[in-house]
């Protein structure tokens, strides 16, 4: 769950409480007929709080961090980072959202399908993207062994200090959004950004 910009070219920030299509879901056109009904039923059965309503100041701060973190980064790289962290955190809500965002931005199906196993498909990703994905994994799984020096050095070799700081901030932000989505029971197939 994260902020993004609209496709208007105006750079308008759309927050994580989002825009829904006519059925109240987003990106479901390719799903079986009963999937939209199942998504709606799951959303209706959801009983957990809405962070945007219950902790408005904290939510707005998170939206601001997200907006600041992505500033100046390649939008394709932003989505790859968000998708990989969402895989690792098992966040279906964010994974659905960011794969759809990447697809709408022109990302290839091959790269979307292979990002979870990018090490076995390195030829689909630039060296800079690979360094960012390795750093994403290390920061996301920080409890498993910290951020190894070689992973950090690999990222530092491809990003200047400002860019690297933005990438780290983005990784921290998507990890927070994943935790918000999981803790509050967000339903995959919905997109609550408005």
Structural class designation: mainly alpha
Average pLDDT, rounded to a whole number, is: 85
Query: Which geometry do the CA atoms define?
Result: globular
Which regions have little confidence, pLDDT < 50, spanning 5+ residues? 1-26
Q: Which series of helices and strands comes N to C?
A: EEHHHHHHHHH
If you compute it from the alpha carbons, what radius of gyration comes out, rounded to the nearest whole angstrom?
Answer: 17 Å
Helix content: 55-70%
How many separate helices? 9
- Rounded to the nearest angstrom, the distance between the terminal CA atoms is 12 Å
Q: Specify the biggest β-sheet.
A: 2 strands, antiparallel
Give me the side-by-side strand order of the main sheet.
1-2
Q: Hey, roughly how much beta strand do the residues contain? A: under 5%
Number of strands: 2
Characterize the structure shown.
By secondary structure, this protein is mainly alpha-helical. The chain has nine helices and two strands. The chain has helices at 33-45, 51-54, 56-70, 75-88, 92-104, 109-114, 127-140, 149-156, 161-183; strands spanning 4-5, 13-14. It has a two-stranded antiparallel ribbon. Mean pLDDT is 85; it is low at 1-26.
